[in-house]
Specification:
Largest interface: A-B, 24 and 26 residues
Strand content of chain B: over 45%
Distance between the termini of chain A: 41 Å
Radius of gyration of chain A: 14 Å
Number of helices of chain B: 0
Largest sheet of chain A: 6 strands, mixed
Largest sheet of chain B: 7 strands, mixed
Helix content of chain A: under 10%
Number of strands of chain B: 11
Oligomer: heterodimer
């Protein structure tokens, strides 16, 4: 069975702070994909990143960075110098064989000015 | 065109009504999905269509009836819904129905459904 755990239900930070959202996954598939999605109050799910199981390189995109470690089954997401517009629900997700995307419970991020 | 569109944006219906949600994509994707999302919860998969055929039904009640008339269009027909069916309904599409290679799912903005 596949499972994604986002242990942080809600995080509050002050603008310009760095924040890391944790994601731990479980799967028996050898090939799988990991994703992060952002869902602002407007409701649309916004794709942030996809990482396949064979690529453990960390990635940086502007203020966003991701740390993938297969040894600990983690795919953590860091926002540097957070902004109020980063306030949203962030979902980590896993897709293995069978075309099914399994989401974590989500982390609500509140960035205060 | 890299977007998935959904209509209507909002829908209010009574328990005896029949309504339909519509989803459209023009990216040539061959897999399309319906998800249900309650407030502050993750999306839950309902149905998957691969090459216009229903490939996954996550034990969804029969009051929800999906339809895929062609490779660009996905409908969700609603009948005799309950108030607990009120939620955000998200449609998504992806390129590869086999589920692995470059299979990013593109999500639509959703239809916010309220059942009275």
């Amino acid at each position: 069975a596949q499972k994604v755990t986002q242990a942080q239900t809600e995080i509050s930070v002050v603008e310009k702070e760095d924040v890391t959202l944790d994601c731990v996954y479980e799967t028996r598939d050898t090939t799988y994909y990991l994703f992060w999605y952002k869902q602002p109050p407007s409701g649309e799910l916004v794709f942030l990143i996809r990482r396949n199981s064979f690529d453990e390189q960390n990635e940086i995109s502007g203020r966003y960075s991701w740390n993938f470690q297969k040894s600990t089954s983690s795919f953590n997401f860091t926002i540097t110098a957070s902004q109020v517009v980063d306030s949203a629900i962030y979902f980590c997700a896993l897709e293995g064989y069978g075309n099914k995307l399994v989401f974590g419970a989500g982390t609500i991020l509140r960035v205060k000015s | 065109d890299t977007e998935v569109t959904q209509t209507p944006k909002h829908l209010v219906m009574g328990m005896t009504n029949k309504k339909s949600l519509k989803c459209e994509q023009h990216m040539g994707h061959r897999a399309m999905y319906w998800y249900k999302q309650k407030a502050k919860k993750p999306p839950e998969l309902m149905f998957v269509y691969s090459y216009e055929k229903l490939s996954i039904n996550e034990s969804v009640p029969s009051r929800f009836s999906p339809e895929c008339p062609n490779s660009s269009l996905l409908n969700l027909h609603l009948h005799a819904l309950q108030p607990e069916d009120s939620a955000l309904y998200l449609c998504a599409s992806s390129q590869d129905p086999t589920g692995l290679a470059d299979n990013e799912q593109f999500f639509g903005p959703g239809t916010r459904l309220t059942v009275l």
